[in-house]
């Protein structure tokens, strides 16, 4: 399809795949018709209109089965033969519920309407082809194909393709905070091959056609191409697209053409509103409602059968009976009458009450100051409104590592270059000194000591108690972090990743000394001094820091300048630099020739090879590796002969005479070179003077600010700057870099291959400023980079040298990982011009493709990033967040299994696990790094050896109070095998017997598969927590997804159910709020079932004394409003405010949380016990008044009066007994419920004559309440009915101390026996006074 001519095709198949966009000023009628077929920019987020509100809202509410059920009963009551009471009375409950819900929906929709009107009425400048100028139009009038001009700080009204920018380099900066919450500026680029920027754009001159993908919600991808009138094509990508709701920053003017408008924009397609999930309790609630329906049917069948039998046995009745209807048909009618009478058994108001309670719970969670982060000024976000109770039932917690357990504030710690390790000891000491100063303010622990054994970790148990490795932690930001640059007009906000520690890197002295050789005129070419680096080593070092400075997407700015190229430093021309090195007859970059073919004499880098073309011998011997690197495992063979790429200059080793002559020539040539260099001291001094002047100007320049999309990039750029390899500016085509001893250079940026989670690396293609070669610099995970390396073809010694560098670097990487450092490898590749041109054609073809674009781009990247030359590696400190060990310990005590799913190296993950106390000294470490068959054998062997699984609840307690157990560590490759169908059960069985599991080198897909496997196979409640885009799939799969608003953007937060700012907040969120929410809601649901069953049975017992005729002994208004109004508010207060355990006790005794995740509150057993309690209380409430008034001439309504009153008192006092917290608000609500009932029945008794035919309630209640017997009956009934419940509640409160199932070990002695060993012997988690007071109480 890429070869199609410039013409418009309207086939249905094509329109389904692509979207065609042209200028709205086109004269082509067919194209105009096509543009009008696209959606307008007017948005409408409301659900209803004035005419559609009633039918649509009613239809939406009918999706609830309960509403359909009660509408059916209301309609059934209009049938005369089954009518139970007046039809209008029967409709009251369902009308009330539907009306309240409709008013709530109407208010929410009205607020959306106001917001829509405001947004649609915003103004922007749209080009008018009639007026030949930009005119102001409302957003809602913008159409696809319109040209829009925006100024700085204006919001983008639609998805636009960037065609013009006032920036001379065609750059535009946007802020996406309105879209994804990220405040770092994003750089966007004008479409390539458009006219020069900086000159006013004229829409009349735009005659190109845009072919792009159809609207979708993928914010990170945009595929398409622009076809000019000359039939030339240019690929379009995400960097050319300005998204709706983003803000233009630091750019004076931009012009774009609208490609997506209104609801077709990516922002609107991602606006799905609050997340709704179905909680586990809701699923159980539906099952219990079905039981209530079954119970209702049984009661109605009993009444129907009883009525039929009663009619058959009735002879010569003294009252009016329909004798024409057969007993069977009469029983059928009674069945439906009883359905209407006993309808209250199904709690109609329960669903509405649950929604109200959850909103109240969310309000208190969001306003908890303990979950507020004052540094970020952020509080917890509850994005899912209906799963708060699931927080109290979590059994498995899956956590990311970087940014979740750690700060994700990276600090450069150490590095390895050319196979030599530079420990940066001063940098380490600076970090250690910084931490006590930090923690002196907060009172937190300074260093978390942990250790791992030196024994092999492959497929066997290892005791982790022999060595100690410290992982540095920070608990707060230093005061220096607040001392940023003074305020300025642009009001630049420093990213959180740019902490003072990240910027203030202390260089390693040995590495600084070697870099200083670049500026020294007396660089030795031979191995004359062990402390003098060779040209090859200098090349490696320079390329290493150059890669750190330019292989990134960092935006450079300063307090006084916007975020673009800061090019205010006088530069030396490239010709001057080349001439200087030609005069000195030396170039430290000449070693590049060893990896590249010869160049022509006139090429930009021909001068760099002159050193190696001296005489007959073209070999050169690099100096020995410094003595300081010997301890790092230096190669004992120090002499490595490097051949030049010229085959005519190969050394003939067959003649000793030739060798002697060559040596003499070498010595003479070296002496001549030293003489020449000595004569050039003046030139060198001039260069140093110029450098000093340049440094003075640099220091006087504004402080550079780096804004990076990831903390890793910021840390590496600051590390390069510490070694005077400074990134000073960036444009789409050039990078401005300072090199030590050379000065400021403009590096031509040819291409960027951004980082992605599949490749796990990033590359830049540049034109080297000194050699003119096309060079690829790559940085990425060591597991990926190491597989892409290949020794260069050439001398055997050179291959040995590369192998030695690779081996030493791998040792250093393993050492960094054991210290808990994040590791990255840096590599390069020199491309032939022909090779680069060939790759570029394929890359441009892939970028211009719409279909299979990702696959083509991936293939192109793999083709470029091969046969790399390893330069070195970096180790970055990622400090542990504060209170992470305490949080994990508390979660484990609460019975929650913690799994860590990370993409880091195994050693790094183990070290972090030790530091956060997930892996404790008495735990046994089991690592599994093997293939499928080995894994299966290992699982079976481990299963056979573990006769008693070392779970937390059954293992012996250590001296520290922590249970010993197995910790399973599995890598990504093995995890692939473990997730296969035939091995899943074995993997799950093995992991169930482990106290914790650590999955290393896992991909985002593997993370989600692990969570899904545990959730579905073990039928447990899962929670996933992460902070980055790679955690989104895991968060969405889990029952509860929690995003951390950290340094990696807001993708995880936008996909989560709850969003927090620190991992430590999980402790209170789960142990306190989760426990409360589950306990409150579970008890409230049980209370609803209880009160409905209790009241309905009063009507059922009466049927035994009225021939099962469906008659009732109470007023129909009271019958309908009793559960709907008089007793409905107290459960709401209970569900929002009740605290069965104080917060302090829950924090100190995490074992109390286990009642939730083992569902001990709301289980079938408690449901049926509640139903039986309702039956018992209804028996007492009915038969105590019955036997009291037996033989009297009391009427039906008079008999029902004490029954209703007793039922009200029993239900309200039952609530008081169940409540653990009683406040003045509880008192007002309970008192208000009682007063409202008495006020209603008294008014009904005084004024109502015909409001409830055929009965007449006039004077009934006033007469009953004037007699002392009424109050005696009510009091006796209430006491007898509530006595078992009160006794059981007291017994349950006393037994909580001795309940071994709550958290103590099985077999613990009762009456508080488990408290002594668990809390008195524990040195890490002492019980505080509030918890003890609550336990005693």
Written account of the structure:
By secondary structure, the chain is an alpha+beta fold. It is 43% helix and 14% strand. The chain has 42 helices and 36 strands. The strands form seven sheets. Strands 14-36-35-34-15-30-33-32-31-19 form a ten-stranded mixed β-sheet, with helices on both faces. Helix 33 runs antiparallel to helix 38 and helix 36 (1164-1188) packs antiparallel against helix 37 (1196-1218). Mean pLDDT is 75; it is low at 1-15, 434-498, 522-530, 563-701, 947-961 and 1296-1337.
Layout of helices and strands:
Elements: H1 12-17, E1 18-21, H2 29-37, H3 53-61, H4 65-76, H5 87-120, E2 123-128, E3 133-138, E4 147-151, E5 159-165, E6 171-175, H6 177-180, E7 185-189, E8 209-213, E9 224-227, E10 233-236, E11 241-242, E12 247-249, E13 253-260, H7 266-269, H8 280-313, H9 327-341, H10 350-366, E14 381-382, E15 396-399, E16 406-417, E17 420-422, H11 425-442, E18 447-450, E19 461-463, E20 469-472, H12 500-503, H13 509-516, H14 535-550, E21 555-557, H15 574-584, H16 656-679, H17 681-700, E22 705-707, H18 711-722, E23 726-730, E24 734-739, E25 743-753, E26 761-767, E27 774-780, H19 782-785, H20 796-818, E28 822-831, H21 833-848, H22 853-864, E29 869-880, H23 884-893, E30 897-901, H24 906-915, E31 924-928, H25 932-945, E32 966-970, H26 972-978, H27 981-992, E33 996-999, H28 1004-1018, E34 1022-1026, H29 1032-1037, E35 1040-1044, H30 1051-1054, E36 1058-1060, H31 1065-1103, H32 1116-1126, H33 1129-1137, H34 1143-1148, H35 1154-1157, H36 1164-1188, H37 1196-1218, H38 1224-1247, H39 1260-1264, H40 1268-1295, H41 1315-1320, H42 1329-1336
Parallel strand pairs: 15-30, 15-34, 30-33, 31-32, 32-33, 34-35, 35-36
Antiparallel strand pairs: 1-8, 2-3, 2-4, 4-13, 5-11, 5-13, 6-7, 6-12, 8-9, 9-10, 14-36, 16-17, 16-29, 18-20, 19-31, 21-22, 23-24, 24-25, 25-26, 26-27, 27-28, 28-29
């Amino acid at each position: 399809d890429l070869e199609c001519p410039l013409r418009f095709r309207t086939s249905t198949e094509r329109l389904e795949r692509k979207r065609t966009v042209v200028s709205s000023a086109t004269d082509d009628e067919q194209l105009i018709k096509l543009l009008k077929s696209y959606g307008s920019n007017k948005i409408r987020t409301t659900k209803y209109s004035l005419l559609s509100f009633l039918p649509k809202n009613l239809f939406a509410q009918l999706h609830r089965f309960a509403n359909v059920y009660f509408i059916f009963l209301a309609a059934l009551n209009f049938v005369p033969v089954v009518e139970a009471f007046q039809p209008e009375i029967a409709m009251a409950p369902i009308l009330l519920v539907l009306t309240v819900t409709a008013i709530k929906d109407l208010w929410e929709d009205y607020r959306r309407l106001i917001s829509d009107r405001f947004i649609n009425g915003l103004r922007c400048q749209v080009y008018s082809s009639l007026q030949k100028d930009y005119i102001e139009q409302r957003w809602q009038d913008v159409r696809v194909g319109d040209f829009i001009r925006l100024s700085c700080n204006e919001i983008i009204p639609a998805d636009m393709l960037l065609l013009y920018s006032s920036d001379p380099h065609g750059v535009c900066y946007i802020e996406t905070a309105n879209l994804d919450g990220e405040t770092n500026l994003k750089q966007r680029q004008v479409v390539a091959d458009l006219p020069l920027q900086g000159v006013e754009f004229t829409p009349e001159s735009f005659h190109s056609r845009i072919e792009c993908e159809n609207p979708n919600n993928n914010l990170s991808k945009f595929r398409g191409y622009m076809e000019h009138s000359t039939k030339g094509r240019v690929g379009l990508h995400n960097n050319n697209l300005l998204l709706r709701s983003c803000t233009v920053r630091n750019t004076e003017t931009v012009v774009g053409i609208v490609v997506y408008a209104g609801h077709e924009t990516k922002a609107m397609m991602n606006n799905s509103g609050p997340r709704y999930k179905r909680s586990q309790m809701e699923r159980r609630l539906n099952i219990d409602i079905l039981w209530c329906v079954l119970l209702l049917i049984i009661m109605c069948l009993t009444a129907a059968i009883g009525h039929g039998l009663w009619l058959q046995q009735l002879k010569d009745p003294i009252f009016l009976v329909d004798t024409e209807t057969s007993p069977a048909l009469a029983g059928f009618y009674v069945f439906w009458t009883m359905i209407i009478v006993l309808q209250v058994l199904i709690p109609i108001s329960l669903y509405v009450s649950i929604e109200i309670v959850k909103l109240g719970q969310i309000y208190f969670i969001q306003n908890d100051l303990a979950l507020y982060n004052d540094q970020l000024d952020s509080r917890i976000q509850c994005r899912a409104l209906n799963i708060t109770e699931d927080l109290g039932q979590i059994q498995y917690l899956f956590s990311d590592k970087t940014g979740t357990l750690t700060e994700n504030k990276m600090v450069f710690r150490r590095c390895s270059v050319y196979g030599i390790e530079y420990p940066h000891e001063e940098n380490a000491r600076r970090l250690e000194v910084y931490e006590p100063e930090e923690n002196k303010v907060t009172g937190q622990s300074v260093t978390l000591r942990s250790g791992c054994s030196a024994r092999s970790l492959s497929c066997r148990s290892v005791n982790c108690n022999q060595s100690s490795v410290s992982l540095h932690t920070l608990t707060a930001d230093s005061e220096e972090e607040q001392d940023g640059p003074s305020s300025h007009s642009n009001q630049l906000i420093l990213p959180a990743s740019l902490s003072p520690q990240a910027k203030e890197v202390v260089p390693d002295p040995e590495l600084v000394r070697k870099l200083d050789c670049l500026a020294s005129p007396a660089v030795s070419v031979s191995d004359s001094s062990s402390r003098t680096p060779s040209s090859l080593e200098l090349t490696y070092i320079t390329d290493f820091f150059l890669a750190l400075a330019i292989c990134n997407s960092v935006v450079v700015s300063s307090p006084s300048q916007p975020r673009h190229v800061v090019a205010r430093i006088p530069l030396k021309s490239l010709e001057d630099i080349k001439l200087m090195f030609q005069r000195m007859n030396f170039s430290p970059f000449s070693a590049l020739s060893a990896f590249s073919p010869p160049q022509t004499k006139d090429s930009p880098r021909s001068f760099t090879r002159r050193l190696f073309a001296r005489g007959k011998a073209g070999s050169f011997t690099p100096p020995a590796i410094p003595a300081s690197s010997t301890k790092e495992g230096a190669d004992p063979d120090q002499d490595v002969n490097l051949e030049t790429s010229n085959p005519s200059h190969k050394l003939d080793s067959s003649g000793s005479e030739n060798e002697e002559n060559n040596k003499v020539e070498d010595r003479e040539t070296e002496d001549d070179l030293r003489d020449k260099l000595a004569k050039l001291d003046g030139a060198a001094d001039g260069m140093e003077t110029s450098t000093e002047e340049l440094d003075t100007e640099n220091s006087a320049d504004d402080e550079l600010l780096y804004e990076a999309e990831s903390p890793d990039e910021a840390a590496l750029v600051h590390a390069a700057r510490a070694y005077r390899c400074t990134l000073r500016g960036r444009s789409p085509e050039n990078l401005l870099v300072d090199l030590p001893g050379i000065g400021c250079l403009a590096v031509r940026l040819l291409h960027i291959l951004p980082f992605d989670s599949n490749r796990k690396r990033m590359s830049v293609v540049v034109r080297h400023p000194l050699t003119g070669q096309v060079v690829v610099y790559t940085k990425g995970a060591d597991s990926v980079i190491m597989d892409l390396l290949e020794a260069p073809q050439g001398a055997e010694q050179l291959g040995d040298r590369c192998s030695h560098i690779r081996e030493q670097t791998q040792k250093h990487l393993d050492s960094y990982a054991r210290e808990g450092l994040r590791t990255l490898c840096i590599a390069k590749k020199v491309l032939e011009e022909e090779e680069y041109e060939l790759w570029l054609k394929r890359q441009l073809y892939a970028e211009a493709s719409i279909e299979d674009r990702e696959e083509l781009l991936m293939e192109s990247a793999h083709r470029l990033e091969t046969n790399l030359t390893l330069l070195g590696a970096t180790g970055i400190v990622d400090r542990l967040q504060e209170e992470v060990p305490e949080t994990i310990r508390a979660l484990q005590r609460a019975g929650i299994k913690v799994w860590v799913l990370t993409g880091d190296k195994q050693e790094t993950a183990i070290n972090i696990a030790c530091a956060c106390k997930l892996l404790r000294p008495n735990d046994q470490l089991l690592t599994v790094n093997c293939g499928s068959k080995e894994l299966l054998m290992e699982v079976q062997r481990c299963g056979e050896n573990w006769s008693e699984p070392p779970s937390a609840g059954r293992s012996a307690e250590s001296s520290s109070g922590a249970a010993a157990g197995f910790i399973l560590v599995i890598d990504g490759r093995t995890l692939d095998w473990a997730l296969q169908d035939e091995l899943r059960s074995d993997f799950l069985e093995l992991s169930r017997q482990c106290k914790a599991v650590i999955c290393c080198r896992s991909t985002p897909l593997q993370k989600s598969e692990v969570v899904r496997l545990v959730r579905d196979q073990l039928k447990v409640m899962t929670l996933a927590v992460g902070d980055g885009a790679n955690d989104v799939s895991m968060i969405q799969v889990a029952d509860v997804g929690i995003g951390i608003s950290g340094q990696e953007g807001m993708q995880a937060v936008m996909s989560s159910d709850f969003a927090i700012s620190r991992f430590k907040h999980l402790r209170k969120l789960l142990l306190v709020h989760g426990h409360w929410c589950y306990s409150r809601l579970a008890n409230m649901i049980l209370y609803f079932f209880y009160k409905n069953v209790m009241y309905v049975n009063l009507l059922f017992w009466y049927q035994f004394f009225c021939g099962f005729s469906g008659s009732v002994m109470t007023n129909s208004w009271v019958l309908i409003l009793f559960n709907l109004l008089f007793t409905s508010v107290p459960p709401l207060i209970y569900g929002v405010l009740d605290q069965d355990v104080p917060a302090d006790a829950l924090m100190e005794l995490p074992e109390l949380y286990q009642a939730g995740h083992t569902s001990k509150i709301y289980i079938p057993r408690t449901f049926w016990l509640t139903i039986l309690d309702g039956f018992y209380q209804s028996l007492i409430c009915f038969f105590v008044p019955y036997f009291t008034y037996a033989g009297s001439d009391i009427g039906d309504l008079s008999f029902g009066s004490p029954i209703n009153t007793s039922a009200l008192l029993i239900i309200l006092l039952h609530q008081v007994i169940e409540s653990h917290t009683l406040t003045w608000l509880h008192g007002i609500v309970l008192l208000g419920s009682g007063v409202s009932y008495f006020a209603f029945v008294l008014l009904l008794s005084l004024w109502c004559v015909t409001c409830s035919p055929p009965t007449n309630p006039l004077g009934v209640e006033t007469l009953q309440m004037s007699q002392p017997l009424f109050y005696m009956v009510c009091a006796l009934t209430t006491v007898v009915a509530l006595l078992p419940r009160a006794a059981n509640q007291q017994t349950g409160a006393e037994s909580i101390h001795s309940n071994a199932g709550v958290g103590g070990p099985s077999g613990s002695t009762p009456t508080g026996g488990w408290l002594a060993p668990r809390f008195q012997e524990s040195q890490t988690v002492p019980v505080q006074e509030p918890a003890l007071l609550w336990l005693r109480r």
